[in-house]
Amino acid sequence: EVQLVESGGGSVQVGGSPRLSCAASRVTDARFCMGWFRQAPGKGREGVATIEMYGTTNYADPVRGRFTISQDNALNTLYLQMNSLKPEDTAVYYCAANLGAVCGGTWSLTGNYRYWGQGTQVTVS
After folding, report:
1. Which among 50, 35, 119, 48 has a CA at the least distance from the CA of 88?
2. What are the percentages of helix, strand and coil residues in the chain, rounded to 5?
3. Which phi and psi (to 5°) does residue 14 adopt?
């Protein structure tokens, strides 16, 4: 069973640049799609960014140019570097993974991901 554990959230000032991490265990499949989602109070969970085995990335329009997703395959760790944070970035951020498949054009659909972390709160003020 794949386990995902996020870290790096907290309270951040507007314009701040925190980095989230997601430690992934038991990810042995050569094909995978991993990513970050977020859920703001009173809203649904939305896709933020995804990355595949060979580095292909996808970004949601609100974060493109400000957030960067990356991975360290040796450490089995996924990162989300967030820059120029805005109050509307406040949300619980979740790490997600789908094995045996690429991200594709439907990368932002939560139903495509079998494995989820517990989430980490990011509050921007």
Report:
1. 48
2. 5, 50, 45
3. -55, 135
